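Reader question, answered in our methods column.
A reader sent in the components of a multi-part assembly and asked whether the whole thing could be modeled at once rather than chain by chain. We filled in our standard form and ran it. Here is what they sent:
COMPLEX SIZE: two components
ENTRIES:
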Amino acid sequence: MAADQQTPALDLTMDPADLTAALVDVESVSDHETPLADAVEAALRRLPHLSVHRDGDTVVARTELGRRERVVLAGHLDTVPLPTVDGSLGAVPAVRRREGDRDVIYGRGTTDMKGGVAVQLVLAQQLREPTRDVTYVFYDHEEVASDASGLGRVMRNSPELLEADFAVLLEPTNGTVEGGCNGTMRFRITTHGKASHSGRSWIGDNAIHKQAEVLATLARYEPRTVTVEGLDYREGLNAIRIGGGVAGNVIPDTAWVDVNYRFAPDKSLEQAQQHVRETFPEHAIEWQDLSAAARPGLDRPAAAQFVAAVGQQPMPKYGWTDVARFSQAGVPAVNFGPGDALLAHTDDEHVFDDAVRACHRALSQWLS
Amino acid sequence: MAADQQTPALDLTMDPADLTAALVDVESVSDHETPLADAVEAALRRLPHLSVHRDGDTVVARTELGRRERVVLAGHLDTVPLPTVDGSLGAVPAVRRREGDRDVIYGRGTTDMKGGVAVQLVLAQQLREPTRDVTYVFYDHEEVASDASGLGRVMRNSPELLEADFAVLLEPTNGTVEGGCNGTMRFRITTHGKASHSGRSWIGDNAIHKQAEVLATLARYEPRTVTVEGLDYREGLNAIRIGGGVAGNVIPDTAWVDVNYRFAPDKSLEQAQQHVRETFPEHAIEWQDLSAAARPGLDRPAAAQFVAAVGQQPMPKYGWTDVARFSQAGVPAVNFGPGDALLAHTDDEHVFDDAVRACHRALSQWLS
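And here is the structure of the entire assembly that came back:
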């Protein structure tokens, strides 16, 4: 599609399922989002009710109606690499089929997340006077390292562009509202001893044996389920790697265990760290990575009306997603999008036409 | 020395310290023992009171006097590789110096164990009518893999050559009798669980956490000290390596710990294995290597008179040595030799002349 270096034209008046297929046809693997970002920017600039901003390959378009509330609809433009399996349906261009009594679109990005992006684009075209001001965000580099994210970059460069009362990320949730997300952190606990020949072990001090206490703490730890704004977040505290020892006849002088703590959005990063310190009061904690949790924000008026428009019981999100970026910026956020997240990144990636249309209908109703 | 491919001549009437230096001059790193084995064989064949046997680079010489008791004096001909440090004293040929009021010989093999081999050779020449029949064993490949050992090979090929009531290995013990040795075995305990994403850890079952119980057993294990024939053997049960885990966001489905058990010679290999099974009744034991312990044999008449001749309190041997090979063949064995075992394999390897002579004197007195 991008072979002729021209910007593909996108028709935002299309049916959202048709637009999904058109977006899949524009290859946009991470680092190659420019043609799609150009097309999105060009299409949005044709709409006079939006002010359009560009930062790298991220496009932000805003209504400026002076409404009492502003909401964000956000989605990423990039996909993971194209499938390499010969004969796979998950290729560019999209393949449209009928399965039973449903129409379906196969191809890289159908689930994650060009269905959601298509819904954003159609809403941007249709909602000339939404009941809330809307900020549409189309960002790059979501599928690679966290610090490459275009969303994070715009938050640093132009935070005012993203100020809002509530945000919806149109990641695939099968049409359910998934609120907030657990935080996650990894840390290492190293135990120390004294090396010696294992034939004279009384001269040494076995560092592996000292992990007994650490592992016993983990084994008897009872992870909590924390209800936040009506959603039940299940936590977890788990060893993910352990190591120690140098040779078959040496008492080891160090051993380590790496632990992953997944914690509910009732706790700040600092509170979660404090909980870890209190759980292992005898040990030094070596932090490896820290990602804050995100509250679902379902207590905000915009959110309550959104949930009512969707008409389904919201669910908690366990994995860490970009809603946490919004949450850290003070904007409660949820995931809500068409497609099954379990198909994301697979060669079998696909989305049903009616799922894309249902998502569009719910958001349209909420904002009209 | 071996450069001209000729067999170096050894004069067994020399002072044992002088002969030690002469032996050091014949390089005999493992796999290169042939010139030294040839020299030893040639020198022994000149002694009509000995019957001499050759197996590879192992030489066995025996008195055949029909005595009521037979003892073995054994030592290995090979050394670890020569020091590579420039200017080191631990080189071929030997360097003889005076330190304070003592004469000392530096060079590879001085401690481990050409001092002991020199004592064997001088005794072989001097003891024409020993009070016990004597079997002198000079063997190859002690410093490499256990199954390459010339001693083990002769035990398999010609066990009758090594039949005896008692054996002395002239490994360096600083002139003390070190009796028997602890056995050693290694085994693995693997714990099993169920993998899952660490964000949904309740779906999985953490195999690392299950090591808590194994490590707690090790941590609270109180190793025994077992007195065997008057010698105190300290045991040990120690984790030597631990591992598990695949990625930062995966609940691991397996984890393992490798354990080394050092056990006193009151137990057979089978009894030691049974003790391990009873210590970890809930876990499958995967045996990795098994080496039996050796009793000191100090209850034998030959041994008692040997200890009296040495005139020092015997000590237990903790590390596994070739005495265990003799013990397994039904021959109680001890270590007794000149030099400090802590200098073995170092660039500073050396032995004092008077230590070699004292060892010779004690053995000569015992066998005369």
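What stands out: The CA atoms of residues 155 and 162 of chain A lie 7 Å apart. Chain A has two domains: 16-181+294-367, 183-291.
Send us your own complexes using the same form.
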